[in-house]
Amino acid sequence: MPVFPNADPSSHIPSPLELLGWSEFFADQVKPSEVDLVPRRVASVHRARIDAIDVSGPIGLELPPNMNTADFAVGDWVLADPLTGMLVSRLDRKTVFQRRSEGGHGQQLVAANVDSLLIATSCNADFNLARLERYLVMANQAGSNPVIVLTKADTADDAGIFVEQAKALQRDLPVVALNARSADPVSMLRRWCGVGQTVAVVGSSGVGKSTLVNTMTGAASQSGQKTGTIREHDAQGRHTTTARSLHAIPGGGWIIDTPGIRTLYVSDVTDGIDTLFAEIAELAPRCRFRDCTHTHEPGCAVQAAVASGAVAADRLERWRSLLAENRDRTPVVSGPRGNKIASKKKY
Ligand SMILES: Nc1nc2c(ncn2[C@@H]2O[C@H](COP(=O)(O)OP(=O)(O)OP(=O)(O)O)[C@@H](O)[C@H]2O)c(=O)[nH]1
Ligand SMILES: [Zn+2]
Asked: Tens digit of pLDDT per residue, the chain (347 long)?
């Protein structure tokens, strides 16, 4: 019998459901009256149809007439009737990404139950600190661990310059530079893609999201086609992703690809901004005024930190503009006495 030097005899062998990302968080939500239902995970959402996976593989989900596919996100866990295949209920989400739809008023669901968000950008003209900050705010707000993935490192003279700049964006932020067309992603991203873990890839069009997903899933497995990624020609005649879907990573977790996002607005993400600019958020309580804007007030701890060089002036500038945008775009609802309160985060 082979001996594995690091094998832990007490180590937990994941159940087939755990391999799909199931955990106690979801199991605890199943009511006694629901024990005859089966958990399924949403693999792709279409206008009139939802495809799911369960322990036996890909499976369709029937939606009752009072439910709308737009209310479901890739990565969601639902309970279904095993006999009719009818979706009965959705379990609460551990994490959820949503973004304000362009021109629209509602929030558009991007993905749910994502453990780590792979924020892809390339080591070239696409590299933009302000855009990365928006994605970081989105990940922080959703409760997922952000990881910056710098693609096309093979085309850069010195990818290290990009790595250093990205690392400075947020405390303890993991940053990896790789060639998405080589085997790099498989080993370099493995620690976020363990058994039962789910990652999602976001970023602008053309940065290499699909290439990354194909490399991680082993394109030869054709799992991309099976779970329903759609590639269409865009205005420039390039192939581009138009639908999100969940793909299996051989020997590991799950990866969700998303279409390129043109404009990412920040809205209702105050906590996410505080995490991104932790050095500023932590100083604020030491300002003389509780509602200090850190611009002109006497006794401002943040301005003092900028003067001493402990906080970078451009960070304060970017913090201010993100916060202003967030304030402008966050819907305000009337409170009990007509006072305005920001809308509550809703999963
Ligand atoms: N040299 C190099 N080329 C890459 C790398 N990653 C992606 N590419 C190329 O960049 C182009 C765009 O890659 P895609 O994977 O289609 O980009 P995408 O982000 O999925 O784009 P959308 O589907 O439009 O959102 C393709 O020609 C890829 O072969 C990389 O790390 N190095
Ligand atoms: Zn201040």
From this structure: 444 445 555 678 889 999 999 999 999 999 999 999 999 999 999 888 899 999 999 998 999 998 999 899 999 999 999 999 999 999 999 999 887 666 656 677 889 999 999 999 999 888 989 889 989 998 998 889 999 999 999 999 999 999 999 999 999 999 999 999 999 999 999 999 999 999 999 988 889 998 999 999 986 444 443 344 445 555 454 555 556 789 999 988 999 988 766 666 666 778 889 999 999 999 999 999 998 999 999 999 999 999 999 999 999 999 998 888 888 776 655 444 434 444 444 34
95 is in an annotated binding site: no
Of the chain, the end-to-end C-alpha distance in Å amounts to: 49
Helix (H, G, I), strand (E, B) or coil at 106: coil
Task: Provide the CATH number for the domain formed by 16-90 in this structure.
Answer: 2.40.50.140
Residues forming beta bridges with residue 78, ordered by sequence position: 40, 90
Pocket mutation for ligand 1, best pick of 210, 242, 257 (most atoms within 8 Å of C-beta): 210
Mutate which of 207, 216, 229, 262 for ligand 1? The one with the most ligand atoms within 8 Å of its CB, which is 207
Q: Can you name the CATH fold of 96-257?
A: Rossmann fold (3.40.50)
Q: How many Å lie between the centroid of ligand 2 and the Cα of residue 316?
A: 11
With tokens 């394109």, the residue in question is 219
| Residues 6 or more apart in contact with residue 121 via CB below 8 angstroms | 127, 128, 131, 132, 148, 149, 150, 151, 203, 204, 207
Domain segments of the chain: what residues?
16-90, 96-257, 270-342
Rounded distance from Cα 327 to ligand 2 centre (Å): 18
**Ligand closest in space to the Cα of 156:** 1
Nearest-CA residue for atom 14 of ligand 1: 208
pTM here is: 0.82
User: Is 123 marked as binding a ligand?
Assistant: no
Domain 270-342 top-level CATH class? mainly alpha
Max distance between CA atoms of the chain, in angstroms, equals 73
Q: Is 208 annotated as a binding residue?
A: yes
15 is in an annotated binding site: no
